[in-house]
Design a protein that fits this description.
Radius of gyration: 28 Å
Number of strands: 20
Oligomer: single chain
Largest sheet: 6 strands, mixed
CATH topology of the largest domain: Hect, E3 ligase catalytic domain fold
Number of helices: 16
Shape: globular
CATH superfamily of the largest domain: Putative Large Serine Recombinase, Chain B, Domain 2
Strand content: 15-25%
Helix content: 25-40%
Distance between the termini: 82 Å
CATH class of the largest domain: Alpha Beta
Strand order of the largest sheet: 12-13-14-17-18-20
Amino acid sequence: MRNVRTSATEEEGRVPTRAVAYVRMSTDHQKYSTENQLAVIRRYAERRAIQVIRNYEDAGKSGLRLDGRDALQSLMRFVKSGQADFEFILVYDVSRWGRFQNADEGAYYEHECARAGITIHYCAEQFENDGSIGSSLLKTVKRVMAGEYSRELSVKVFAGQCRLVELGFRQGGTPGFGLRRLLIDEARNPKGTLNFGERKGLQNDRVVLVPGPPQEVETVRHIYRAFVERGMREIEIAEELNRKQILTDLGRKWTRGTVHQILTNEKYLGNNIYNRISFKLKQRRIANPPDMWIRSDGVFKSLVDAETFEKARLLIEERSRRFSDEDLLELLKKLLRDQGALSGLIIDECDDMPSSSVYRSRFGSLVRAYKLVGFTPNRDYRYIEINRLLRRMHPQVMTDVVDGLHRAGGKVERSSSNDLLTINSEFTASVVVARARFTPAGAIRWQIRLDTGLLPDVTVAIRLDADNRKPYDFYLLPSIDITTPRLRLAERNALSLDAYRFETLDFFFGLAARSQFAEAA
């Protein structure tokens, strides 16, 4: 291998060593901007007569794992293919290669490059990556320090979020039926209501929960009155709301589970609760016990009074007391035999079962209850459950899309055999629902299958949220631009894909609208 210390003069008359540059930044921090990284890399290359033939850039990507770093994944695939047309990979420093929580992971990817005869050079580090004992020790220390930086930052961020919760500020999540997110400045002056999918733009701004439209607030209070005063079950309340054509905050019909969620969520009492679920350092999600929750009581305006909320809680608790542990497990066994799998969703949607929260409270966790009835949850069972949910959801999704096109003034023909939509006899559209999947590292991915057999002009792809219960966002994919039969999407994607992303389907419905022109004289 050529000595990278060879001067440009000594290299005259020879073909320069070829290299590619890899740059990454997770935020807009000026020190690590991709432009600054490339400037250092170019100077490094010029001093050593190295020709940089192209750049690989992961902008706005975390270095905690490989998932989501499309540029690095593409680079690694090229390296492993054996067709790489370069000898070096130039990286600003060890932390730009990655802040992997296991230092060996970064070393593994570098080893993969070495096996292909490609050396990584860290251009801003104080050591040469030449395989010597000194450089190897320093590189290992740097890898550990890069991972430790993320761990320390995670602790600081979590502490800051907990402090904001204690001060009464909302930390993420949808507001829920009957509530809205109000944006306020650092002096607590209101700045406006955030709609679904909107986020605050300034770091010093904060979010609090406030009562929503009066009709929604009254519906929430009606749910509590029906449950506490009239003794109605959740499923009966859901059926009553559906008969009145009252929809949830997501525009869906009510179920036993959605009613139960309102009756048990303390945000309707005005309490702010955080850290029910942990997802630190983008590892696996963990459901935390109540003693780990961060809470601040009475910080939001309540929709129901404390007495009514407590009565509802006691009724739910008393309902579960009628069952012994053996009774609960027998019911769970019967449900397992009927459904073939168990989950919180399956339990909550079963009319004759206590809620999943009863099992969590009685047995410590759902997983422990599952174990007592001989059920081990795994991906295959969850996949079956979600597929069942998607099958139930799809007819309603199609109805909602068709209704939206009609409201916009369009004429829609729906094929009974394949659900292909023909709008205004001008263009066709296919609607697909994409379930959310978690990678082993905890990242969310969506796989969208485009029906190339139908050849629609536009594919409306609806991505579901992490729980696969409601829409997360929408993609309008024109067949003239999207020719692949499958797309695998992350939470954030390249502009070539996210240019087709929308928070609602209003733009799609607008394609069916018609404008009236006055007759010319």
